From TrEMBL:
This is Uncharacterized protein. It comes from the Bacteria. It comes from Chondromyces apiculatus DSM 436.
Length: 90
């Protein structure tokens, strides 16, 4: 039995427990649970913002900016190739 299967099995046992059901109906506990579930996303967005701020302060390009620049360069190269072909044919 894998760890995931074991966790699912134990979770189902807990969900069937009347005491746990009573706790799950408590609005405060559910609010706390939902807040705890949102923490990783908040931390991720905060660190992303901090990385971007640091990169701008240091005059560096972020990975997103580099990816956009590479796309732009590739599109321009295709356009130059197309224009050269058109000029050679004309």
């Amino acid at each position: 039995m894998s760890l995931k299967d074991k966790l699912v099995t134990e979770g189902m046992k807990l969900a069937a427990n009347p005491n746990v059901t009573k706790l799950m109906q408590d609005e405060r506990l559910m609010r706390l649970f939902m807040t705890a579930m949102s923490v990783p996303g908040r931390v991720s967005s905060f660190t992303t913002e901090q990385k971007e701020t640091f990169a701008k302060t240091m005059g560096l390009a972020t990975s997103d900016e580099l990816r956009d620049l590479k796309r732009t360069v590739a599109a321009l190269e295709r356009e130059v190739t197309r224009l050269r072909k058109a000029a050679g044919e004309g």
